[in-house]
Amino acid sequence: MTILFVLLSILVLILLITWVKLNPFLAFLISSILAGFLLGIPPEKIAKSVQMGMGSLLGDLVIVITMGAMLGKLVAESGAAQRISDTLMAIFGVKNVHWAMMVTGLVVGIPLFYNVGFVLLVPLVFTVSYQYKLPAVYVGMPLLAALSVTHGFLPPHPSPAALVAQFGANMGLTLVYGLIIVIPTIIIAGPLFARFLKNIKSSPLETFQAKPKREEELPGNFNSFFSALFPVALLIGTTVLAFQIPETSSIYHYILFVGDPGMVMLISLLLATYTLGLRMNFSINTLMDLYVVSVKDISMILLIIAGAGALKQVLMDSGVSQTIADGLQGWDVHPLVLAWTITAIIRVCVGSATVAGLTTAGIIAPLVSGGVVDPNLLVLSIGAGSLMFSHFNDAGFWMFKEYFNVSIKDTLKSWSLMETIVAVVGLGGVMLLDLII
Hints:
437 residues; mainly alpha; 3 domains; 19 helices; globular
């Protein structure tokens, strides 16, 4: 009955949005409360679950998304995004724009958290789409596929890094195996899949669609790349330093502070305010007005993400993930396939890749201690399963839909299907490596 109640709650969510035409934020609240009652959470605790879910998810994302929107608006309005897109087009050519986006997403996605990378690079996607009259989803999907895969598969991202620690795997070896699997996975789910998405209608947020500037008005190549990608460099630098400096050192804690994604985005925005703003003859009043407009444009996105967090928390508090995991533990299948299946089902039901991965880890851990399976491949198998079929209960689904401004149907046909391809191809890569190693 547990699975049935979860499916019923998600069905109500879908109907409220698509049939009743209710605002997604309100639909999430109603569905979350309904799920709480159906799954047996005491009535007095349902409201607390909803509030905790909204607060915990926004607590992680609100600084990143708002600062990213401000930085994205500045990168677009200053002409830096246009300069970067011109450079990439000169290297790859317009016909190979999807490959340029894939490479950008892969390079940036390894050190950058998904949400940071999304809000940082979306202006680049929209600028290329606007400037060269190309479909936004076609241009953006290879980049988003790369960001998603690196987030789910590769340390030092939170879930893979935590799994490496739990299974006693080797982080360097997991990263090497991961890259072997990641590259073909991204190629299939990115540039190749994107060819089927050219007809999807998209009207991206206008805040990221700056009108083309004349050559003499654009910032230089170094300024454009440096300012836009400074968050990447800062995250890489702090991550490397955190591994090199002992935890007992007084500097270590300051490195962790500076390396926090929210702090990275704040520092990067302040830097860009000078390099792309004041230095390019923008007045401080003009810059602050740009920032206000950028935040207004994403306010509903924040509410929708908060609603997704409420539903996720209700499902977690009800014990759904553990119930599903316990029910599947006795299946007589290959350990890597079992780990992937458990993770995928929890991911579809709960919506959180991290929750799905870490829940599965507790169930599968005995396989590692018994030497039944390679722990490095187990990390990657769970990582692949954690990306399975992102839909209505996943914040990433709503970020894609609202930023690209596409319909629910087209979001399922593009974003959700891309995530499914990533999960399936990723498992295939893991099983192939298991035969070779």
